[in-house]
Amino acid sequence: MSLHLRGDRGTAKLHWNEMDKRQKRIAAERLAELDGLHVVTVGTSLPVKRQERARAACLARLVHELDSLEVRELLIESRTTELDRRDVTTVTGARHALPKGTRFRVEHQAGAKEPLFWAADIIAGAVRAHLMGDSVYQRMLEDRLHEVFVETKC
Description:
Blueprint: H1 21-32, E1 38-44, H2 51-68, E2 73-77, H3 81-96, E3 105-109, H4 116-131, H5 136-141, E4 145-151
Parallel strand pairs: 1-4, 2-3
Helix pairs in contact: 1-4, 2-3
């Protein structure tokens, strides 16, 4: 991903929600040009007050999806020390349900330090836009997108 995807903003990283439609289209087009599969877990029935519980349900499912693709490491954008601990606890719990001997590692890193988080932000933005009725970005990425819907029961 090129640094110019940040646009004219003086931010340290890409923010989908701060981009205009043209910038979003360019970002989705650029990401669609790259090899790879983007796995997204989407929480359903998600009240705002239960966002962290829904995140945990989606993260646990993501661990299982990644394991099925033989991915053994997950890099997550760091939020706060406490929220990062919750993520690790969730991944640890999900890992216990994997076959015995399976190795799966999770690590947090600051968003501004890892450009691959830009891809995750673009994918999440495109999927959210699709769920809200604007499918143009998701269609650009659909050949490289694996969406899993998670009933969060939150």
